[in-house]
Give the backbone structure.
Amino acid sequence: MEIRPLSGSGGAEILGVDIARGLSNAIFADIHRAFLDYGVIFFRDQPFDLDAQVAFARHFGDIDQHPIVKGMEDRPDVIKIHKRAGESATFGVGWHSDNSYMVEPSLGSVLYGDVIPPFGGDTVFAFQTRAYERLSSGMKKLLDGLVAIHGAGPAFSAPTTKEKWEGKSTLAYQMSDAMSAEVEHPVVRTHPETGRKALYVNPMFTLRLKDMTEAEARPLLEFLYVHAAREEFTCRFRWTKGAIAVWDNRAVMHNALDDYEAYERVMYRVTVKGDKPR
Ligand code: SIN
């Protein structure tokens, strides 16, 4: 197994692993170490095998079922993210950490690329441990005590989601309590495995800051969103057919770029359960 870092802040490609063949405990321990060290890891040229993808995801933890996006009919633990040619991409577009509107947001996701546009459709990752570490001591002090409110409502009721609610799209939504729930998370979370602190707000699901007026909170959140996605804190993944990405939502935000309207893209996502951010 060879690990090739992709940027100065995080992300690494792992070579020499065939996920569908099953992983020994020793190999998985190395993969898990790389996952924690790099925040997101990538594998290329893996065969299409949903059973193997789910089994691989299970090494990281129990599988999470999305509260709003429907899984595949015969595989509720897998979301098929299918964008047809001629449509805009609308899933995962914009910076976010998966399901941060849940009391226990997802630990991470395992995403398989099956149909890849000839260009475009990359996914960008921003490393929130690095973003936190690069803040001034004064800003860290301010943020360390703050709490943010997260909710799924605005993101999932945007005009672009209409067809998904009506069942007219390749991706379908189902009504759930998560649509109206609001949950509190610290603005800075400590990673339960590495002990590193990371920024934990995102423009898709963070609604406001607790105990602050909108006028006070908005400029601070806007600053954090710009800071958190600074180019030097990111890496960008160019998908190829058969590639897999595994990211750690406790340390990384991601953004699926919507720049390939003329082309189809098909991905399969399996998500791993997480714990309450502290
Ligand atoms: C997601 O946010 O899970 C989607 C990522 C992608 O399609 O690249």
User: Anything to note?
Assistant: Residues 81, 91-92, 109, 111, 123, 254, 256, 267, 269 surround succinic acid (CB under 6 Å). The domain at 2-272 is CATH 3.60.130.10 (Double-stranded beta-helix). Residues 50 and 78 are 8 Å apart (CA to CA). The radius of gyration is 18 Å.
